[in-house]
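Students often ask why inverse folding is considered easier than folding. One informal answer: many sequences map to the same fold, so there is more than one right answer. In these notes we will look at a single instance of the problem. The structure comes first.
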């Protein structure tokens, strides 16, 4: 039993070390592009050291964080995880849930869950386009939705049509 726990701990440490390495590379890339704060601000307090109510991020900080969020969504496809929570993304970014929420609200004008659903619906469209005849339940589950009902509701809300109608229209366009 102890061996299993030790192996699990080692696996978790490796996972987080890999994630930290990925974010270091992402920040290095942004630094080369000139979007990261300069080293002369290293002695200034960070968001993590200030009480949450005192943290006021500017638009540039939010846009930088939004770029990181979008990079994660594209590279890791986090939205396909049906259990994804804002806490998970905040932990990956090394920031607070409040900061992620305010960032998404400011930059995209929607909530975190709405943003994730936008990614999921776009992925569902790709699946239906690339695999004509695929079952709607399969599309829903592979796109990160927990059930067909929430998929239908969200898809219709974002596209003003049902998944079946969208698929029929998309297949009709392909034949033309």
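Output (designed amino acids):
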């Amino acid at each position: 039993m102890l061996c299993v726990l030790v192996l699990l701990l080692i696996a978790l440490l490796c996972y987080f070390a890999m994630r930290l390495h990925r974010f270091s590379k992402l920040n290095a890339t942004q630094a080369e592009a000139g979007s990261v704060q300069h080293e002369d601000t290293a002695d200034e307090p960070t968001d993590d050291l200030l009480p949450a109510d005192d943290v006021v991020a500017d638009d540039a900080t939010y846009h930088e964080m939004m770029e990181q969020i979008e990079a994660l969504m594209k590279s890791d496809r986090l939205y396909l995880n049906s259990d994804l929570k804002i806490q998970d993304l905040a932990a990956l970014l090394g920031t607070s849930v409040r900061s992620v929420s305010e960032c998404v609200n400011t930059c995209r004008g929607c909530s975190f869950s709405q943003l994730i659903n936008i990614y999921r619906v776009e992925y569902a469209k790709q699946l239906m386009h690339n695999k004509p005849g695929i079952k709607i339940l399969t599309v829903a589950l592979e796109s990160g939705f927990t059930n067909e009902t929430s998929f239908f509701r969200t898809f219709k809300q974002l596209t003003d049509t049902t998944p079946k109608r969208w698929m029929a229209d998309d297949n009709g366009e392909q034949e033309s």
